[in-house]
Amino acid sequence: MNTALIRLLHLASPTLPVGAYTYSQGLEWAVETGAVRNEDTALAWIGDCLAFGVARFEAVYLAHMLAAWGSRDTARLAELDAEFIASRESSELRAETLQMGHSLTRLLTDLADFPAAPLADFSAPSFPLAWSCAAAAWSIPAPDAIGGYLWAWAENQVMAAVKAVPLGQTAGQRMLLALGQRIPTLAEDAAACPIEATHNVLPAFAIASSRHETQYTRLFRS
pTM of whole model > 0.85? Predict the structure, then answer.
């Protein structure tokens, strides 16, 4: 078994201490309104956000960041990072990516075998920038890294749905099986997508995130 696979499992693990489990990215508001109320509606919501949002935008930026790390193009990385942060539709989503980016950067800096110096050039990196830095440093192939990133996002969303709807653990595993079947194709498409062709138009997701900011009772930070 090669080390890159182990490193990918490490990066995609829900135990990675970056605080991902504290965020629902608007899913909690969708549960509050009744738009997400059972296994089927949770799968539809998460699947649409995955296919039409994360895979078509965030994963595309991740792919281009991985390429820029490979060529050590710091200027391009700074440009991609600034564009990604500017794309966050709500204050919660912006705070989320910066907090997780900060936490991952700090973790990587504290790991004895990780060359964290490249991240020192960025004062407030987004989560995709810090994550792509780790994937590139650990020589994880780009298609695998993108697939792992999408899986980690989907797993966190399913975990949020299990808590917030709530759903049973078996329902959560069925959802992960269904979402996992889509990820290889989504990752392949993201890896091949020119940055000019990506888009981030997912109105329900943006509205849910914005409305969550003033939701009266909350389990999650976004």
Answer: yes
